[in-house]
Design a protein that fits this description.
This is CRISPR-associated protein Cas2. The chain is of the alpha+beta class. It is built from two helices and seven strands. It has helices at 18-27, 42-53, and strands spanning 6-14, 29-30, 35-41, 58-64, 71-76, 81-86, 89-94. The longest helix has 12 residues, at 42-53. The chain starts with 5 loop residues before the first strand and ends in a 14-residue tail after the last strand.
């Protein structure tokens, strides 16, 4: 049986469910509120990632990866943001929101 390696992971949550915070606190250190970091083996990482991906709140997952910058970013339930790979550099793209101008009528 091959040995499973460990990987560094950072998970940041917005409006997390209490059960998810509890599950993450088993494997990670909560640095500031709703931000978890630590080294976790691959088997447990798969379990944790499945729980985070199923959350109703927003999440950002940063995992160690053997690429140019050394990590990968995944956004969960971020409707206006996407991760773009720009020549090996991970950038966060934000969709522009259309601003509706209110029409004011001047009585006169």
């Amino acid at each position: 049986m091959p040995k499973r390696s460990s990987a560094w992971m950072v998970i940041s949550l917005i409006k997390p469910e209490a059960a998810l915070r509890g599950a993450l606190s088993r494997y990670f250190v909560e640095i500031p509120v709703h931000t978890f970091a630590g080294k976790i083996n691959r088997r447990h990482a798969d379990i944790v990632l499945e729980k985070v991906r199923a959350t109703k709140g927003k999440a950002a997952i940063i995992t160690a990866k053997n690429n140019e910058i050394g990590f990968d970013i995944e956004l969960i339930n971020h409707d206006n943001h996407t991760v773009e790979d720009f020549d090996g550099l991970m950038l966060i793209s934000t969709k522009r929101r259309r601003i509706k101008k209110s029409v004011t009528s001047e009585g006169g």
